[in-house]
C-alpha cells in the first residue's frame, strides 16, 4: 500500500495545468478510537481486499455471494489491458471471434471499461463509446481537433457528447483503432483511463475557475491533482481501480455550486479554519435505480495541502470495507449507513498519513443565499478587458465539424481553451472585449450553438438515450428537443426551468436534480407497449438542494406535452400563449 503526499501553497495556487508528479511515501497504521466505531464488530473492519502481484484483489473468504462484475475482476485483472498492454493483442481479434470465449467476451463487455471503452452491443454491435478524463471540464483546441479527427472517420456512427460530468464521450470507435487512439490521446495530453466501471469518475470543478470575479477559489489545481492521483499521471493507479462501485468527486469553487456537491461521493466545500484555507467534506451522494441519496457532512475539515491525502484515505476505506454483493447496494453511502458516520470517519482517519483528521469548520465560505448566476451569453471576467461566452450545445451533442469550428473559435477569439459544463454546454474563456461582436456574428453561434437560446432550451439536459446506449429504454436527445419545442409554442415562460431526461433508472441525466425530470420506461396505451416516462418534480440545486420526487408514473411519451404545460403553468408561472395574446 502506498500513500501519496502532495504539498502546494493554498495562497499561491498555480494557474498552469502542469504539475509535478506525485511521490509515494510509506504509510502508518495507527487505529483511532471512535464511539461510532465501537459498536462495529472487529471482524467487520477487516479489509476485504489484499495485494497480489501488484494488484488489489478480493480475499477468498469474502467471495461468497459476490456479483458478476466482481467475478470478472477476479478471473482476469482489467487493468492489465493497460498496464501490461493487453489492449494491443485484444485489438487484433475480431469481436465475433471474442464471442466464442467467455473470457474475451467479458473483456469487450466489462474489462474494457477500465480503459473508458463501452461496447454498444445492443444497438451498435462492434462499436464502442470512449469516455475521457477531463478534470474541471477544461480542454484545449488541439485536444478538441484530435477528438474531431477520431470521430470523423466513423461517418454517421461517429459523434461526440458533452456529459453531465464536464466530460467528453466520443462514439463509433472500433476496437482495431483503439491502440492508435490511445497513443493520440496521450500525445495531446488526454486519457480515457479508469473512466468506467468501478473507478473514480471525472473530477468536477467550477467551469468559471480562474476567470470568475466572484469565485471563492480556483478549483483547477485541485481537480488536476485529484485526476493525477487517480490515474498516477496517466500510468494507471491500481490502488484505486478495484472499488466496489463507481465513485464521484467534485471541488466547489463558487457560491453558485455549479458542481452539484450533493450528488457526489466526495465534495470539497471551501471553508477557513483558524486563518487557514481548506475544505469541509460532504460524502455519500449518489443516484441509482433503487436509491438516491444526498451527500452528508463527514464532520471533517482538511487544509488545502490534504486534498489528495484525504481523497486517498476515503477511497481506501471504501475499497477495503465496501460490500461486493448486490450492485444496487454497493455505493459508498451504503457503507456509511452500515458503519455510521463516526465509524466511517474513524476508518478514514486510520488511513490518513498522520492518522489525524480535524473536525468540520464553522467558517463555511459558500454564501447560502446566493442567487445562481447564468453563464450562457457574454460575461466579464476578473481579468480586466476580457470576457467569457457561454454557448448552448443542444443536449450536448456535437459532430466532428462542430468540434473543429469550436476549436477554431477558441484559437481565433480566445486563448485556445474550451470549458465543458455539467449542463452539457461549452464556455469559451479569455476573449478580448474588442472581439466579442465578431464572435457573436460567427455562423456557428447564429445557426447551431447560440449564446442566448430560448428559455426552456437553455437548461435542457438529456442522456445518450437508446440511439446508442443499450441500457436506455427510450430515445431521449431528439425527443427532449422536439417536446420542448412543442411546449414552447404553447406557453410563455419568464423564469428558467431545468428539465432533464434520462433513458433508464440509472439516471445519467440526473432527473432528480431537475425542476422537472423524465425517466424512461415502457408503458401501455390502447393495449400496446409504448415508450413512456416517469415524471419527477421539485429537484433543486444550490445551497438549498433537494432531490425531486415522482409526480406521475408511466406517462406515454406522446402524452407528455399537456402534462408539462400544466406543470409550467401551475408551478413556474408560465402563461398559455393564447391567453398571453388575448391580454395584449
TrEMBL record:
Pathway: Nitrogen metabolism; nitrate reduction (assimilation). Residues 121-188, 379-443 form the Nitrite/Sulfite reductase ferredoxin-like domain. GO terms for molecular function: 4 iron, 4 sulfur cluster binding; ferredoxin-nitrite reductase activity; metal ion binding. SUPFAM superfamilies: Nitrite and sulphite reductase 4Fe-4S domain-like, Nitrite/Sulfite reductase N-terminal domain-like. It is an enzyme of class 1 (oxidoreductase). It holds the Pfam family NIR_SIR. Its cofactor is siroheme; [4Fe-4S] cluster. This is Ferredoxin--nitrite reductase, chloroplastic. It comes from Solanum stoloniferum.
Amino acid at each position: 500500500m502506498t500513500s501519496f503526499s502532495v504539498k502546494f501553497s493554498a495562497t499561491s495556487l498555480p494557474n498552469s495545468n502542469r504539475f509535478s508528479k506525485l511521490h509515494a511515501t510509506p504509510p502508518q497504521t495507527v487505529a483511532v478510537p471512535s464511539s461510532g466505531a465501537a459498536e462495529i464488530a472487529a471482524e467487520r473492519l477487516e479489509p476485504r481486499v489484499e495485494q497480489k502481484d501488484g494488484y488489489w484483489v478480493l480475499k477468498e473468504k469474502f467471495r461468497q455471494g459476490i456479483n458478476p462484475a466482481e467475478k470478472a475482476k477476479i478471473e482476469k485483472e482489467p487493468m492489465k489491458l493497460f498496464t501490461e498492454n493487453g489492449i494491443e493483442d485484444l485489438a487484433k481479434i475480431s469481436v465475433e471471434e471474442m464471442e466464442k470465449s467467455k473470457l474475451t467476451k467479458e473483456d469487450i463487455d466489462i474489462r474494457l471499461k477500465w480503459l473508458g471503452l463501452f461496447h454498444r452491443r445492443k444497438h451498435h454491435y462492434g462499436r464502442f463509446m470512449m469516455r475521457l478524463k477531463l478534470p474541471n471540464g477544461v480542454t484545449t483546441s488541439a485536444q478538441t481537433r484530435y477528438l474531431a479527427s477520431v470521430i470523423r472517420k466513423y461517418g454517421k456512427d461517429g459523434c461526440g457528447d458533452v456529459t453531465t460530468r464536464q466530460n467528453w464521450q466520443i462514439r463509433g470507435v472500433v476496437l482495431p483503432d483503439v491502440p492508435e487512439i490511445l497513443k493520440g490521446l496521450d500525445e495531446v495530453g488526454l486519457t480515457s483511463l479508469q473512466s468506467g466501471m468501478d473507478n473514480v469518475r471525472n473530477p468536477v470543478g467550477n467551469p468559471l475557475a480562474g476567470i470568475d470575479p466572484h469565485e471563492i477559489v480556483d478549483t483547477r489545481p485541485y481537480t488536476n491533482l485529484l485526476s493525477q492521483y487517480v490515474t498516477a499521471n496517466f500510468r494507471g493507479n491500481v490502488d484505486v481501480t478495484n472499488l466496489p462501485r463507481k465513485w464521484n468527486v467534485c471541488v466547489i469553487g463558487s457560491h453558485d455550486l455549479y458542481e452539484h456537491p450533493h450528488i457526489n461521493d466526495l465534495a470539497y466545500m471551501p471553508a477557513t479554519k483558524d486563518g487557514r484555507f481548506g475544505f469541509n467534506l460532504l460524502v455519500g451522494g449518489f443516484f441509482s435505480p433503487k436509491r438516491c441519496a444526498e451527500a452528508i457532512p463527514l464532520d471533517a475539515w482538511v487544509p488545502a495541502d490534504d486534498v489528495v491525502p484525504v481523497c486517498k484515505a476515503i477511497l481506501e476505506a471504501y475499497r477495503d470495507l465496501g460490500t461486493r454483493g448486490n450492485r444496487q447496494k454497493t455505493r459508498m453511502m451504503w457503507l456509511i449507513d452500515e458503519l455510521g458516520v463516526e465509524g466511517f470517519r474513524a476508518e478514514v482517519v486510520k488511513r490518513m498519513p498522520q492518522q489525524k483528521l480535524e473536525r468540520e469548520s464553522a467558517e463555511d465560505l459558500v454564501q447560502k443565499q446566493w442567487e445562481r448566476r447564468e453563464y450562457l451569453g457574454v460575461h466579464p471576467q476578473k481579468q480586466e478587458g476580457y470576457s467569457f461566452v457561454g454557448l448552448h450545445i443542444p443536449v450536448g451533442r456535437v459532430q466532428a465539424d462542430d468540434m473543429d469550428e469550436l476549436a477554431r473559435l477558441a484559437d481565433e477569439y480566445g486563448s485556445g481553451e474550451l470549458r465543458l459544463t455539467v449542463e452539457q454546454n461549452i464556455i469559451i474563456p479569455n476573449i478580448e472585449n474588442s472581439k466579442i461582436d465578431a464572435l457573436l456574428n460567427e455562423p456557428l453561434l447564429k445557426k447551431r450553438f447560440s449564446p442566448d437560446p430560448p428559455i426552456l432550451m437553455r437548461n435542457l439536459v438529456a442522456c445518450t438515450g437508446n440511439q446508442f446506449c443499450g441500457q436506455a429504454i427510450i430515445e431521449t436527445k431528439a425527443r427532449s428537443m422536439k417536446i420542448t419545442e412543442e411546449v414552447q409554442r404553447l406557453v410563455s415562460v419568464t423564469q428558467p426551468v431545468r428539465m432533464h431526461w434520462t433513458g433508464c433508472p440509472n439516471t445519467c441525466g440526473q432527473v432528480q436534480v431537475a425542476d422537472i425530470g423524465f425517466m424512461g420506461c415502457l408503458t401501455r396505451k390502447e393495449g400496446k407497449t409504448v415508450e413512456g416516462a416517469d415524471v419527477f418534480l421539485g429537484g433543486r440545486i444550490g445551497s438549498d438542494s433537494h432531490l425531486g420526487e415522482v409526480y406521475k408514473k408511466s406517462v406515454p411519451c406522446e402524452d407528455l406535452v399537456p402534462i408539462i404545460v400544466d406543470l409550467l403553468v401551475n408551478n413556474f408561472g408560465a402563461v398559455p400563449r393564447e391567453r398571453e395574446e388575448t391580454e395584449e
